[in-house]
Design brief:
The chain is α/β, with parallel strands linked by helices. The chain has two domains: about 20-145, Rossmann fold; about 150-295, 3-Layer(aba) Sandwich (Cytidine Deaminase, domain 2). It has helices at about 30-40, 55, 70-80, 110-115, 120-135, 140-145, 160-180, 205-215, 245-255, 275-285, 290-295, and strands at about 20-25, 45-50, 60-65, 85-90, 135-140, 155, 185-190, 195, 225-230, 245, 260-265, 270, 285-290. The strands form three sheets. Strands 6-13-11-9-7-8 form a six-stranded mixed sheet, sandwiched between helices.
Length: about 300
């Protein structure tokens, strides 16, 4: 269950204050910012250098920084009157040799260094705890932009077959088993054969790896079989780093010679849904949201 941040007086989201958006790359930040501003709420963007889209950032109050300049973010968010924060967009995890802390973050170095030795979920949870200690309320992106949440059932015209459903179940079981090790959020399964497991490279490069394997005839199934399966880790903080798909994911699935993709309904995000459905229909790829109530319990 997603915890919705509560205002002490109104009992809901603090929509009379600007929303602080820590903005990475990809198309999801635009969807979130546009959804929030359509509702009449201002945003203040802490734009991550090398990742955030300048065309989006420049239209709003903003400051540029890095993932290790928490002090800069804190000063900016407080100056803009923000009480709630959303983290959205892709960011490559830095190595220890690439880190450059601002002065206000020096006291947090032991915590961040310890977090960097863990997986991505461990690091993001540490960041969330620091923010909350400073009085900010960390929200899930879909709390402020509910339209980006993946619905249950198929999107578009193509439907998964019974064989595809069996691959989805196997993929979900594998992801659940890997959850304690904080490995990744995606696997590729084809007729019960595990073709790939997502690690540090991310989903797009994992799909490219499957395409390369198929090109070298290392895939034991024919083209048009197999499923990309994405789901959050079992004990993941659902406010941050949920599995995400978009039109590029569909294109990658097609290049890998797979039948389609399945993600956990209600706990995965969709970027550019209309474009995603158009691409899926054009390429003959199914996209479905897995709901245990409709599809049966996960393995």
């Amino acid at each position: 269950m997603i915890r919705t941040a509560q205002d002490s007086t109104s009992g809901g989201l603090v929509e009379h204050t600007p929303l602080a958006v820590i903005c990475g790359g990809g198309s999801l930040p635009r969807a979130v910012v546009e959804a929030v501003t359509r509702r009449g709420r201002a945003v203040a963007i802490f734009a991550l250098k090398g990742f955030a889209d300048p065309a989006l950032v420049e239209r709003h109050p903003h400051v540029w920084g890095t993932v290790t300049q928490y002090g800069s973010f804190r000063r900016f968010a407080r100056a803009e009157g923000c009480r709630e924060v959303v983290l959205i967009g892709s960011v490559l995890r830095p190595s220890l040799s690439q880190l450059s802390f601002d002065l206000a973050t020096v006291s947090l170095i032991p915590r961040f260094v310890a977090a960097l030795r863990g997986g991505d979920d461990h690091l993001l949870s540490a960041v969330a705890r620091v923010m909350e200690e400073d009085g900010f309320r960390l929200l899930a992106s879909h709390e402020v932009a509910p339209d980006i949440l993946m619905p249950a059932g198929p999107l578009g015209r193509v439907q998964p077959t019974e064989d595809d459903m069996a691959d989805i179940r196997r993929g979900l079981g594998l992801l659940a088993a890997m959850g304690p090790y904080d490995v990744g959020q995606a696997v590729v399964v084809a007729r019960d054969y595990v073709l790939a497991v997502e690690a540090a490279e991310g989903t797009d490069l994992m799909l490219q790896r499957v395409a390369d394997l198929r090109g070298h005839r290392r895939v034991p199934t024919r083209a048009g079989q197999g499923v990309l399966v994405k789901a959050p880790k079992p004990h993941q903080d659902r406010r941050i780093d949920l599995p995400t798909i978009g039109p590029d994911t569909v294109e990658g699935v097609a290049r890998a010679g797979l039948a389609g993709l399945a993600v956990a309904a209600g706990s995965s995000l969709v970027a550019e849904m209309e474009a995603l459905v158009e691409s899926a229909d054009r390429l003959g790829i199914f996209v479905t949201g897995w709901d245990p109530e409709q599809n049966g319990p996960d393995p």
